[in-house]
Write a structure and sequence with these properties.
Largest sheet: 3 strands, antiparallel
Distance between the termini: 34 Å
Number of helices: 16
Strand content: under 5%
Bound molecules: coenzyme A
Helix content: 55-70%
Shape: globular
Length: 380
Amino acid sequence: MVVNRGLEGVVVGSTVLSNVEGQIGRLTYRGYDIDDLAPNASFEEIVHLLLYGHLPTMLELESLKHELASRRTLPGQLIAAMQSVPKTAWPMDVLRTIVSGLALFVPANNKGEHVSDVHSAIELIAKTTTILAAWDRIRRGLEPIEPRADLAHAANFLYMRSGKVPTEIEADAIDTYLVLLADHSYNASTFSARVTASTRADIYASITAAIATLTGDLHGGAASASYNNLVAIGSPEKAEKFVRDELAKGNRIMGMGHREYRVRDPRAAHLEKIAKELSEHRGNTKWYKIARELENQSQRILAEEKPDRKIYANVDFYTAPVLADLGIAGDEFTALFACGRVAGWTAHVLEQLHDNRLIRPQAAYSGPAAGPYVPIEQRR
Ligand code: COA
């Protein structure tokens, strides 16, 4: 029995949704290169592409936008639930709990199951940003702001945080961020969603499992950790010492390295561009400059220290300066990642259910050989 630790290199299923070509650094959604999608398509277009299988016509896009907008509002009880928990709660924990809570408001069939269809998927996509924006305000002691149906998904998210309609460059930054994060083949959280769906658990359960899986810092948690690094470094000239100190302590440089990519993550280039533009727009290039230098130093030093492993910036690396420049708190980054990835998760759940087979791998047993039961009084 061959054990592939972390399932590295193991093909566990197929998908038509996205393709990660790690050796050449290409990511495609249903055949469209993200290098074309990121500057041109809106998040809503990507949602349509992933859920319905093709880029929308004008009419289809309007219809999807309308449905997303009509599903943004949260049940009052879930707002009240958020208002009743400690303000110190981590946004990811709040998101996971409230997404799970959404199932309570959807009628179940007589087998206790919720419908897992494209409309439930759209509801989950529509509401995740509302949850995150509401929690941002609640923990700051403010009342949540009702979503606005006339704003696009990304612009409405920023509006629900501040009550101000964002500038075009701010709204575009979030929109492109969500586009870039929307799907990434069988990553850990998506796989988790598919495993859950494969048991015929419903889409709320599957997305809750996916959010839980995204929390760890080897996955979606890396963006927050990467932001903490920028704060700890403080200025670009301290980046080299930081990298050397972290590696000497046996720590990893967050936002660097990837299981699939052996070149720079293609999403990093788009986020770097946005980070630069946003920081110039704000007139404060501090985070961008530290990130730039941190990437240079990390890449150089890691190439010296791990010559056999090609370690480059991943998507989380430039997420940090982009989101920091938009005034989003470092501990919210992973939750915003979830707001983008929920498009892919839901599409994967529906794809899994379309041709389902229970996902149940094997393990090589490495414990003691089978032996007799020892009664408690004879145990030493
Ligand atoms: N900093 C320092 N060393 C790193 C590293 C990083 N960011 N990423 C990988 N390495 C090193 C490991 O220490 C290991 O070295 P070793 O062989 O001497 O022990 C080697 O590269 C291979 O690492 P491994 O953990 O086997 O690779 P993986 O395929 O599991 O790694 C990640 C993928 C993402 C888990 C890993 O690169 C990582 O931990 N990155 C930081 C967290 C992060 O940014 N996650 C977001 C991913 S999108």
